[in-house]
Amino acid sequence: MPAVSKAQQKAAGAALAAKRGEIKESELVGASKEMYESMSEDQLEEFASTKREKLPDKKSN
Prior knowledge:
Blueprint: H1 6-19, H2 30-38, H3 41-48
Helix pairs in contact: 1-2, 1-3
């Protein structure tokens, strides 16, 4: 499943970086911390690799 907004894609990228040890888990906040705890590295990679060109900044309800 691809990311549905730029914010979600960015949060997934931060969580993925933490999973890979590139940043500390303690640096994560909000959605990225939740994603880190609940998603696998493969899932995070799929979200983070979504092309940003046509994504809205935030998901509209």
